[in-house]
Amino acid sequence: MHFEIKEEFYFDGKPERIISGAIHYFRITPGKWRQSLHNLKAMGGNTVETYVPWNMHEPKKGEFNFEGIADLPKFLDIATELGLYIILRPAPYICAEWDFGGFPAWLLEECDRVRSRDPKYMAAVDAYYKELIPRVTDYQFTRGGNLIMMQVENEYGSYSDDKEYLRMNRDLLVKYGVDVPLMTSDGGWDAVLEAGTMMEEGILPTANFGSRAKENFAALERIMTKHNVKKPYMCMEFWDGWFNNWGKPVIRRDPQETAQAFREILELGSVNMFMFHGGTNFAFWNGANESRHEGYVPQVTSYDYDAPLNEYANPTAKYYAFREVVQELYPDKVLPEPIISEAVAYESVEATNKVSLFETLDTVGETTIHDVTKPMEALGQGYGYILYDTVNPIQTHSGRFEIVDANDRVQVYHNNEHVVTQIDDEIGQEIIIKEIGDNDHVQVLVENRGRTNYGPYLTSPRQNKGIRAGVRQDLYFISEWKHTTLPLETDETIDFSREWKENVPAFYEFNVTIEGEPQDTFLDMSDLGKGVVFVNGVNIGRYWEIGPYYTMYLPHDLLKTGANRITVFETEGKEVTKLTFASEPKIMEPK
User: What span, in angstroms and rounded, lies between the C-alpha atoms of 300 and 245?
Assistant: First the structure.
């Protein structure tokens, strides 16, 4: 197969529109990849697009991961087998409502500023690309594969205008073997296209938008005309839905209205549906938005996105509306039937073990002592929770306390008893602890709820999670703190033989026996407070009673025939006695 960009996209000498769908392999367990990719083809798609998250592939400096859900080559193999073209967006920054926009947390300690010419940052990008890019170069159409385009950076025009920085990123891709056409993607208006495109280098500009194709493509036309080139129009991110935030109803977009916008794009150019299949923000990978007007707003575990495929890869009404558009515009296309999987509600189970966090602290975290409080990144921790505990007894003369410069959610304890929970702007308000004894101590459990992935606060000091300044009693900072890192990457080190106490964070273990082949299911968390869940050692993400999702999706390939272990880490002091399953999600729908 030969691919060429002229005034249109040419495949083996014939012009063809790209009908692409975004499927993030890192948000979907490998057992669902084939269903998702098949359903893309069954809807009329000819191309799959995916970002590549640096932080998942290099979670610690120099330690690379391409296994399991991070097995990008395996995902590309399935796409190739199904005959789909591939667009890869390996930019060091991906946004994607993903923690820190895809940057590894360790960069906060390693370099001065991401997305800049900082030599330490660019050296880190170089080392990452040296490991990543050779794994995908053989998929390029120039070497007999289906990979047709790759991206330089991502929506850079919404961040800065440093063309030299963009060229440095381009040069690294070429250095490690990229020889397919390159492209950029930016919002569909003149200012960001001027700032983020690489027209002087002949790199394809594309636009991101959710409607008004004529207006957005007109902006592309203007910048191409300015540089005296004629290239095809492509919407690299057609926002067919949207992501969701805690405590607010899910966002829906009418299927027929969205399909009409989809049609308008295809009548003028090519399209990449963002998202085609949203998937799930497993573990602690969710990102957050932050603005002066709305403050800090982290995303939820589900990344359903109201996409053509729902979170568990089944077609929605929007899918069939899009499919109808494709069939009308391309009547000669023969579309296979989509794959539809069934979810089941397994029988509820009772808890078999429980233990308080404070009792098993030494088995689930690593403790060091420092004279002042340090954020988690300074201790080599990227995600999860961190517990601060005073080394010396606190003074008895004053019960006034204040946590200074911390993110994102703090739970304060006095001798293992809960005092107060503060979140976001509440942090820093005065805390009163009454009746302090001679040997009393204070603990602060801090949750990293996800780093900002987009906007002016991408490089904010608030990206460092934990307590940055300290805890004051009266007017002075308390010195000497135990720091216990709690990344909670697995539940295998919890010691359930130890004591459980009420009203404090605790772990609860459940044993689930499955007969026959496991199927997709949902965990009903509507009676619980807040925390995370592990399934056979895998952290499947956060839950929170404020919604909008009251269930957690559990893919079939995380379960196994026979015995399964599910562990709930409940931070709000609620006792978890029973685990209930559901066959479909429970969601706070818009009124």
Answer: 5
What one-letter code names the amino acid at 481?
A: W
DSSP states along 141-173: GGGTSSEEEEESSSSGGGT---HHHHHHHHHHH
Sheet holding 288-291, edge to edge: 295-298, 288-291, 452-454
Over residues 518-557, the pLDDT tens digits come to: 999 999 999 999 999 999 999 999 999 999 999 999 999 9
* CA gap 557, 313 in Å, rounded: 13
Question: Does residue 528 come out as left (phi exceeding 0), alpha (psi in the -120 to 50 range) or beta?
Answer: beta
119, 304, 555 from 311: Cα distances, Å? 40, 5, 10
For the stretch 168-227, pLDDT in tens is: 999 999 999 999 999 999 999 999 999 999 999 999 999 999 999 999 999 999 999 999
Nearest to 444 by CA among 505, 488, 534, 495: 505
C-alpha span between 361 and 452 (Å, rounded) = 29
State how beta strands 481-486 and 476-477 pair: unpaired
User: Any bridge partners for residue 412, and if so which?
Assistant: 420, 444
Residue 560: what residue type? K
What are the backbone angles phi and psi of residue 238, rounded to the nearest 5°? -90, 105
Q: Provide the pairing of β-strand 530-535 with 538-544.
A: antiparallel
Classify strands 521-524 and 551-554 as parallel, antiparallel or unpaired: antiparallel
Mean pLDDT, residues 35-54 taken together? 98
Catalytic residue list: 155, 237
Q: End-to-end distance of the chain based on CA atoms, in angstroms?
A: 50
